[in-house]
Design goal:
By secondary structure, the chain is an alpha+beta fold. Helix content is about 25%, strand content about 25%. The protein binds fe (iii) ion.
Length: about 170
């Protein structure tokens, strides 16, 4: 009986592991109900075409092309689709990649992270947690204290300075 019991235990353990990973994947990829939702046609009307392509079609802007790359004033970077606060200027750093980069979102709940296997790569996509807009990707080669590099598209965000510019 003992060998049979241990075999059954082993089978059960393997089956449980399989279930756990499948469940984790499902949680990552399941469709979320976002607070801000529009149809594709509505988003197309609401957003300028280059912004629509990034936020709603997950395009990546050309490196060094973004208007937010050289923004160094104090303020908050918000989603260009819904205004959700995403990153503080204090967490922005020069990654040398040509895309605005941050080492932490404003809160963990501000963004969603989703496994992205497109283009033959295994990456982690970063989406706005309020509207589901594609913002960019997060990598593990960032600076302290988190070691994360949130590689964002300028087109996906707007900058709101702490001190509004004088008119
Ligand atoms: Fe958003």
């Amino acid at each position: 009986m003992k060998p049979v019991a241990s075999t059954l235990l082993a089978i059960f353990a393997v089956a449980s592991l399989g279930c756990a990973s499948a469940e984790a994947l499902q949680q990552k990829t399941e469709r979320k109900k976002y607070e801000v939702t529009h149809t594709t046609a509505e988003w197309r009307k609401l957003l300028p075409p280059p912004v629509f392509r990034v936020l709603r079609q997950a395009f990546t802007e050309q490196p060094w092309s973004g208007k937010l790359l050289d923004v160094h004033e104090k303020g908050v970077f918000v989603c260009a689709g819904c205004g959700q606060k995403l990153f503080k200027s204090e967490t922005k750093f020069d990654s040398g990649t040509g895309w605005p980069s941050f080492w932490d979102p404003i809160t963990k709940a501000s963004v969603d992270e989703v496994e992205d296997l497109s283009d033959g790569m295994d990456r982690t996509e970063v989406k706005c947690a309020k509207c589901g807009g594609h913002l960019g990707h997060v990598f593990n080669d960032g600076p302290a204290p988190t070691g994360l590099r949130f590689c964002m598209n300028s087109l996906a965000m707007k900058f709101v300075p702490d001190v509004p510019p004088k008119k």
